Amino acid sequence: ITMPGGQQPQKHYGITSAISLAPPREIDHQYTKKLCDAMKPFGVFEDEEELNHRLGHVNCMSFMASNLPPSAISCVGGKIFTFGSYRLGVHTKGADIDALCVAPRHVERSDFFQSFFEKLKQHEEIKDLRAVEDAFVPVIKFKFDGIEIDLLFARLALQSIPDNLDLRGDSILRNLDIRCIRSLNGCRVTDEILYLVPNKENFRLTLRAIKLWAKRRGIYSNMLGFLGGVSWAMLVARTCQLYPNAVAATLVHKFFLVFSKWEWPNPVLLKQPEDSNLNLPVWDPRVNPSDRYHLMPIITPAYPQQNSTYNVSTSTRTIMSEEFKYGLSVTDEILQGKAEWSKLFEPPSFFQKYK
Fold this sequence. Notes:
This protein is of the alpha/beta class. It contains eleven helices and seven strands. The strands form two sheets. It has a five-stranded mixed β-sheet with strand order 1-2-5-4-3, with helices on both faces. A two-stranded parallel ribbon has the order 6-7.
C-alpha cells in the first residue's frame, strides 16, 4: 500500500487495523514509570543476580542436552528451547522454567525417558526428579538448584538440530508423532506471540502488570476456569496490536477498555488461522460443533490453532467481565491523577463479596 505523499505505512499487526496509532506523550511515560514503581514491591521483576542464577540453569540444560543418550554421542545432540513466561521475558522471582529438548531423528523418545533420565539422576544438584511419560504432554519434572523445571521432548525429522532453528515454520510438524507436536506447541505459540506484537518491551511490561493484577484479583488460573498465563499473554498481545505505539500505562488502560466491551463469544485472534494441510485438529466452530459452545475463545496463533480457554464457564466469564469493568474504572481514575497504581493491585474483599 502506498500512502498519500508516498510515505510507507507502518507494518500491520493483527487481523484488523489498529484503533489508534497515536505516539506516547511525556505524561504517558511518567505514568509508565509510576506503574513500574508500583509493581516492584510484588517481586515481579528479577534482579540481575537471580537472572544470572537462572541463565546458569538454562546453560546447565544445554550441557544436559549435549550429553543426551549414548546413541547421540557420535553425532550432534539435542538443543534446549525455553517457552512460557520465561521465554516471553515476564517470569517473576522463583517462577518455574518451561523447557523443551529438541532432538534429531536418531534419538528416540525412550532415550529421553530412560538413559537421559538416568543421567539426570546422577546430578547431585537435581532434586525431586520424576518422569510423567504417559501424560497428554509427556514431561520430566525436576528441581535444579531450587528452581522447578518442566522439560518436554520433541524428536524432529532432521539429521542434526541447527543453532538457528526456527520452530515457527509449520513444515517441521510433518510426519511427527502427535506427542512431539504437542510438546512443540508451547514453544511455537510463545514464539508466535512475540513475533506478532509491535513492540516487545511495551508488551512485556503491560503483561507483567496484567498478570499481577489477575493474580491479586484471584482470576489467574486455567484450572479453576479463569485464564492461565498464555491466555493473558494473548489478550495483552491483541491490545498491543490495536495500539501499536502506546506505552505500558496506556496499554493497561486500553486492555480494560477493549475487553470490558468485547462481545464474547467472538474469538480473540492474533492472526488469521491458516490450514497447513497436516490434518491436525484445529479450533473451528464452522467445522466442529463442540467449538460453538466455547464461551470465551482465545485462539493460539500457531498451527494447529487451539482455544486456550475451554475451561471457562458462564460464571467465571461473568466474574472476569466484572473485573475488566472495575479495572477500567480504576485505570480511568489513575490516568486522571485521582488514584495511584497501587489501587489496581488491591485484593478483592472476597468474604464481603461472597456472604
